[in-house]
Specification:
The protein is α/β, with parallel strands linked by helices. The chain has 2 domains: 1-363, Rossmann fold, CATH 3.40.50; 369-503, GMP Synthetase, Chain A, domain 3. It has helices at residues 4-23, 25-40, 44-48, 57-63, 69-80, 113-134, 167-173, 177-180, 187-190, 195-206, 218-232, 237-240, 258-262, 379-393, 428-442, 444-450, 466-476, 493-503; strands spanning 94-102, 105-110, 144-147, 163-165, 183-184, 211-216, 246-249, 271-278, 281-285, 294-296, 302-308, 320-321, 330-337, 344-355, 358-365, 369-370, 377-378, 396-405, 414-423, 460-463. A 12-stranded mixed beta sheet has the order 5-3-6-7-8-9-10-15-14-13-11-12, with helices on both faces. Strands 2-1-4 form a 3-stranded mixed beta sheet. A 3-stranded mixed beta sheet has the order 18-19-20, sandwiched between helices. α10 (195-206) packs across α11 (218-232) and α14 (379-393) crosses α15.
Amino acid sequence: MNFTPLARPIFKAVDTHTLRAADDTERTQRRVLRQLLEYGKDTQWGRQYRFSSASTPAEYAERLPVNGYETFRPYVMRMLGGEKNVLCPGAVSRYAQSSGTSGGKSKYIPLPHRSLHRCHYAGSSAAVARYLSLYPDSRLFSGRSLILGGSYANELSLSPKIKVGDLSASLIDCINPIVNMFRAPGKKIALMSDWSKKLPQLVEATRRANIVSLSGVPSWFLAVLRGVLAAENATSLHQIWPRLEVFFHGGISFTPYRNLYDSIIDPARMRYMEIYNASEGFFALQASPDDEGLLLLADADIYYEFVPLSELDSDSPSAIPAWEVTKGETYALVITSSNGLWRYMIGDTVTIVDTAPLKIKIAGRTGAYINTFGEELMVCDAEAAMTRACAATGASVTDYTAAPVFTSATVKGHHQWAVAFDRRPADLQLFAETLDRELCNENSDYQAKRAGNIFLAPAEVTPVSQNAFDRWLLSTGKLGGQRKIPRLRNDREIIDRIIELNNNPT
């Protein structure tokens, strides 16, 4: 049965609210901040920084510095031990273990009931609402959504009342029973921690289901979808799921994977919607198919601030509110949220695509870049260059990472790219040359350093197996639905380990 006509009026109201809030970012964001300060005023953090008497964004910014996660870590650890009213009201029983690391330690993001419902679930509802408004012919609620979930696996010894793991595990575990009727697979399989056992069960549980939508990280989803194709001896997912119509994707850039998905899905029958969600919150969504930027969700229980890149190295960086950003500029994102993270720099950089309404494009991570030779290469540069190199040479990739090769007595400094090819180029050297040229086209600093081969030698491409990337992720405890390979690093720790694993496959 198709329940979409019954759902449309509900989601129409959600979409109207989302767009109205975005049309007046300043008014909406000022209200959100007031609500969050009222929410947190009686916590230890709120009393320390006198939230009860902070009535304006300027007063809030004066009293509280921009913080990294290490500032919050001791407070979160107390909360994990059961202490109440620390960063947010009451006791918090759920935490998202972030895939990001700091000093080799995982980050634990509190997930109080308010944050789950007013931010994460509200963001998901806004994405569905926007999609239904864009596509009047959609039959989204005529079948099930295939959602890849994580697990509660973590390295801590905690009370049984405390649940820690992937954000998606808590989202699936706490989902509304009505919504759960339109989701696959069942919770038992969705929350399994061992992916070697989980993958075949995911395939078996979904290959004969009526799947109409996909939701998850593009890279790991490929393994599941290819497993379904193999099990059904099919070449296109539409042969198996004829009503499949949309993929809600996020976590990593979809651009390098587009051709791979087009090869297993009928492009004429498939739609894609990008979302920007993380352990810390649901931030933005694609407002229309041809949008370059993502619409910032101004009323998702998050107050946003933006740190200019010139301030990143400051001990006390200045941040500006959402209504003061400049189109075309790139900033580090700072959030204040009901999850108890107050003026928290999450580690992402975003470029402002438009200001009315506010639309952003993910530029990369604050620590994900290469700037060994003054080239200032960002992830967005790498993604664009890699996509064009693949298109020009007929290649496709599943994963890659890059790092500098430092200048020595025998080697001129350059960038090395470890690449897992799904379809290897006929001429690997031509691929490397094309990638190098596209990096020059994308980044003027890289181009300047490459001029005449004086300061920087051409890019080097080293083919590695996908298994090498998977084994590295497994060694870090991050293999699964939320896996993210660091694209750029300013050191060689990750790339050297991946190449080592590739050279020693057993």
